[in-house]
Amino acid sequence: MSFNELHISLQNLEINWVRDLRIGGLLSGIYDPQTNTIPTAAQVNDILTTNNLNSGFSYIPVLIPAFNSETDTYEIDESLIADTLFLSNKAYVGYRNFMAFGNRFLTCMPDINDRAQVIISHNLNVKTFVSTLKSKGNTICAFQTRNIPHNGHIKILEYLLEVCDHVVINPVIGIKKPGDTLIPVLKEAYEYVITNILKTQNLHYVPVYADMYYAGPREAAHHALIRQNLGFTHFSVGRDHAGAENLFHPEDAVNFISEIKSDLEIEVFTLPGAYYCNSCMGITIKDCCADFANSSSKAGWVAGFVERKSSSGSTSPRPKKCFQ
């Protein structure tokens, strides 16, 4: 099965896809220190109730949902999942996806099928790609995205290219919520940016196979750990990283990462977002523009969800540069 064939239905919430994604991620080492299933519910509880890596696992437990016929399983506390990951909101898309197949999860690793092996191979190839760039003494920053690129993304990419030798647009691709940009569209859009807008050989599009939990601050840390395990030297966390439906405060992820940076080996840039500056007459990154500090210079912030709504016709035409 080819890389492109995996994308035909990959974004659909389906138990076999979820299992293969998590098996492939675990066995490719992207969730290290978790490299296998979690054997007990008590260990899951420990991970959820701590905000560091001392438990020997990541900030989000990677669990493999069980089929009805499987017996080597345990049940987890659904309320604890809601409380620790999703601000107690059981109507939220992240919680609904997490618990979509019930609260029974495997105690041991199941057999590996061909699709999981393709995922393992791809993620290992990403590690090799990053390692090759690093072997030349380069700094390499991973840029997470799930939206089609807009002026704000381009400004952030320009900034990252100024402070790192290479930037890899490294979206998490896997199960997504309705309304997120389709994986082939995301690839085509960013390759256009690389080739026709930023026009640099130091910007690359290389995705990684993994789950998207929409777990806000804890997922920002989880994403940083994935990029650390892939070999990146730097990672970028921005406004409302891994959030949806306005559940989290826009700066929650940036604040959480700032608190736990000492747990990580990777250096994390915390960027509070891109805005339109009336003084500069263009897009700027908050806190990186002296003019923008003047409240009279501020206009709207640039947001991907507005871009998606606009392009689908569900909102009024957006301004050319400023998303109000």
Describe this structure as you would to a colleague.
With 324 residues, this protein is of the alpha/beta class. The chain has helices at residues 3-6, 15-27, 41-48, 78-85, 93-98, 114-134, 151-163, 183-198, 216-230, 252-260, 304-311; strands at residues 73-75, 104-106, 140-143, 166-169, 172-173, 203-205, 208-209, 234-237, 267-270, 274-277, 282-285, 298-301. The strands form 4 sheets. The chain has a 5-stranded parallel beta sheet, sandwiched between helices. α10 (252-260) links the parallel β8 and β9 (267-270). The N and C termini lie far apart (43 Å). Mean pLDDT is 86; it is low at 304-324.
Secondary structure blueprint with pairings:
Layout: H1 3-6, H2 15-27, H3 41-48, E1 73-75, H4 78-85, H5 93-98, E2 104-106, H6 114-134, E3 140-143, H7 151-163, E4 166-169, E5 172-173, H8 183-198, E6 203-205, E7 208-209, H9 216-230, E8 234-237, H10 252-260, E9 267-270, E10 274-277, E11 282-285, E12 298-301, H11 304-311
Parallel strand pairs: 3-4, 3-8, 4-6, 5-7, 8-9
Antiparallel strand pairs: 1-2, 10-11, 10-12
Q: How would you concisely characterize the structure shown here?
A:
The protein is of the alpha/beta class and 324 residues long.
Relevant terms:
324 residues, Rossmann fold, 5-stranded parallel β-sheet, Sulfate adenylyltransferase, disordered C terminus
